[in-house]
Amino acid sequence: MRSPHIEPAAAPAEDFWLQYALGRLVTSPAWLDRALRHGAAALGEVPEATQALLLPMLQRQGRRIRIVAQILDERLLKNVLRFLPLTAAAGAPALLSQLWRAFRHEREDADWRDHHACARAFCASACARLRAEAAGVADERIADLMRYEGAVLRMDARARTVHAPRTPASDSVVGWDARACPAPVACCEQASFAWSISECVRALRAGGAAAAPCIALPAAESTPETLLFFASWHDRQVRTLRVAPAVLALMAACEGCTTVADLSALLGRPGCPAALQGTLHKLQQIGLLRPAEPATHPQPALTSEDSA
């Protein structure tokens, strides 16, 4: 909870500040810890009159307040993990609890009524912490699963606000003929992994136990892969696509201005228009590209928003 800037006119100031302080104590573990340990020194923003009411209450009821705060914190984590089913199923509750405590102390003033936003922020925080601590193979796998699910959540959030067209830019362009200029219509980002994370994802979705060997497999014995996360413009659903460098280069070249006739030369692959048109058709079918006439202001084809 953030510090209030305007006090409600209908309520006495003391009541307002007391409600604010109690609300923050049970929703901010870090603030509660400081208040129980340091008393008035941790309540600097709270008026002295309110502190005079609050401190005796903390001394008498501190244990009960902590229990309430713990229940609310566990409930928030449970709601957040509903957005991270793969991470929750990976079987590392102790690590997740440790990462969650660090995250809650790190973002103590945030208002997490939006559980989707909280899950995205938790993924970013946990991944950064695991990378900084140079954890073992199993912890690195958990971090990658959180990167994976964080990318899915970001694409889902963007798909709610970005309205892609559902029809070609012009009826004069039909299919992938030489005049067509491939244009991106889906929110997308790429992420590279040092192991076959897609195999682990399939195993976790199938039941969980089968994923254990994948999580423990050393990187030297696994196959690196690059995934493209995107919200299909057909139905706004988030999907993943395992892509080769050639497909990424093709996506980067599809900016809505370059024709299919010029793409082969641009990509250094002359003499293969049929294969190129086939690939473009597949990307259109899954909702990544559409035929378009040259755009005056091209839009970026591919983002690398792997911030987690």
Summarize the structure.
This protein has 308 residues and is mainly alpha-helical. It has helices at residues 13-27, 29-38, 48-81, 85-89, 93-106, 115-132, 137-161, 197-206, 212-216, 245-253, 260-266, 273-285, and strands at 183-184, 187-193, 225-231, 238-243, 289-290. A hairpin with a 6-residue loop joins β3 and β4.
Structural account:
- By secondary structure, the protein is mostly helical.
- It has a domain at 1-79.
- Helix content is 54%, strand content 8%.
- The chain has helices at residues 13-27, 29-38, 48-81, 85-89, 93-106, 115-132, 137-161, 197-206, 212-216, 245-253, 260-266, 273-285; strands at residues 183-184, 187-193, 225-231, 238-243, 289-290.
- The longest helix has 34 residues, at 48-81.
- Residues 1-10, 167-173, 296-301 and 304-308 have low confidence and may be disordered.
